[in-house]
Amino acid sequence: MNLAILTTEIVTVCLAAFLVLLDLVIPEDEPRRGLGFLAVLGLLGIFGHTFTQYGVNGSLYNGLFVVDNFAVFFKQIFLLAAILTILFSFEYVDCLPCYRGEFYALIVFAVLGMMVMVSASDLLTLFVGMELMTITFFILVGYHLGNGKGSEAGMKYLILGAASTAVLLYGVSLVYGFTGSVALADIASRAASTPAILMGAILIFAGFAFKIAAVPFHVWSPDIYEGAPVPITALLAMASKAAGFAVLLRVFLIAFPAFQASWLTAVGILAAASMIIGNLIAIPQRNIKRLLAYSSVAQAGYMLAGMVAADTAGVKGILFYAMLYVFANVGAFAVVTAVYNHTGSDDLTAYEGLAQKSPLLAAIMTVALLSMAGIPPLAGFVGKLYLFAAVVEKGYLWLAFIGFIMSMVSVYYYLLVTKAMYMKAPADRAPLIISEPLRWAALASFIATLFFGVYPGPLSTLAAAAAKSLF
């Protein structure tokens, strides 16, 4: 048994435990920003280590836990999302009345859960990882105890998350009952094209569709995104969604190839519905977090379209898009954090005249939103090009057409934010002061979004290598 392939998870557990223990010995009245920097440094070290795991392709416990290029790529997405989120969460944590140190440890535990999910090669291991992620996010969503909206969001996430988990487990029980196994490879070899197993696959898909906020399983996202702390909203939009897509791809491409003709059509319909409903409902939103919540529903639709291709090109497009979506989201939510800290509001009116108060933040927000819209030469354009090209190659012209039209629709509501920032006068002339860590996170996302739009080669090569692991 080669435990060396577990080093990423082992070090992540140790980092989270060390943060908890260190928090216990720091006096209560002392700031906890040092713990945040320690978490960032630890996660950066783990991120660097993951590059050594490309090409390993090992497994443990009779194949229940695998480390392949696909899993490593997604682990890097989770680590980057957590690092950048922690950087722009310092001011929020400093304002918490208590439990400040645990905030950083919980983010690391959430990353650990997502790591287990993407390396799981059987449904029960996957479930354990998903529960670790979900329970941690439930705590983080309702972390600010004195905030009514936060408590409401946490309770909604708990109840709806429990319901989706029950649906998922019922699907797993059906699959296990008719195949006698929860290992993905065994399910693929034993699964006959029977209605019971098809129903199990549908229920499993429904459980994971909740995690990615795809239509019609998206109803939780606007309220929870609005009520959760901004850094946690960002992490839900980036890492949790990426984890959901990772397990959807692994489970359905490996365990259920016999039903491919059935589930590809259904996924295509859900992708189209997510793109249409997400973009159209985002238009009248005047709360920036709700606008980004519905935008994330549409983004799930674009990535589901890549899943319809069910080949290396489609998976590569999803992986590439998931990575650049992290950078675009970090840029957008870093600005949302800065504006909220300055004004105490998430309304679009709070962004009026932002270009005069902070030209840098206005530019970062504009680039992030236009990248999500798929405007060249930003990274989002390249990502959507990969996704739609894979879809067209498989003959789903109608789906690519819907994706193109809905991308143009998204430009409208993204430009509403830009219009407020550049074409309206600010309510006050006070300069918007931002912390250095938030500035670092925002600038990193800004540079990455521009760089991968102009020079996508390195990330594209990495995504292609990861995609091949599933085929």
From TrEMBL:
The chain crosses the membrane at residues 6-26, 35-52, 72-90, 102-120, 126-145, 157-176, 196-220, 232-256, 262-284, 291-312, 318-340, 360-383, 395-416, 437-455. It catalyses: a quinone + NADH + 5 H(+)(in) = a quinol + NAD(+) + 4 H(+)(out). InterPro entries: NADH-Q_OxRdtase_suN/2, ND/Mrp_TM. It is an enzyme of class 7 (translocase). GO terms for molecular function: NADH dehydrogenase (quinone) (non-electrogenic) activity; NADH dehydrogenase (ubiquinone) activity; quinone binding. Residues 120-409 form the NADH:quinone oxidoreductase/Mrp antiporter transmembrane domain. It is a multi-pass membrane protein. GO terms for biological process: ATP synthesis coupled electron transport. GO terms for cellular component: endomembrane system; plasma membrane. It is found in: Cell membrane; Endomembrane system; Membrane. Its EC number is 7.1.1.-. Keywords: Cell membrane, Membrane, NAD, Oxidoreductase, Quinone, Translocase, Transmembrane, Transmembrane helix, Transport. It holds the Pfam family Proton_antipo_M. Belongs to the complex I subunit 2 family. NDH-1 shuttles electrons from NADH, via FMN and iron-sulfur (Fe-S) centers, to quinones in the respiratory chain. The immediate electron acceptor for the enzyme in this species is believed to be a menaquinone. Couples the redox reaction to proton translocation (for every two electrons transferred, four hydrogen ions are translocated across the cytoplasmic membrane), and thus conserves the redox energy in a proton gradient. HAMAP family: NDH1_NuoN_1. NDH-1 is composed of 14 different subunits. Subunits NuoA, H, J, K, L, M, N constitute the membrane sector of the complex. This is NADH-quinone oxidoreductase subunit N. It comes from Thermosinus carboxydivorans Nor1. The gene is nuoN.
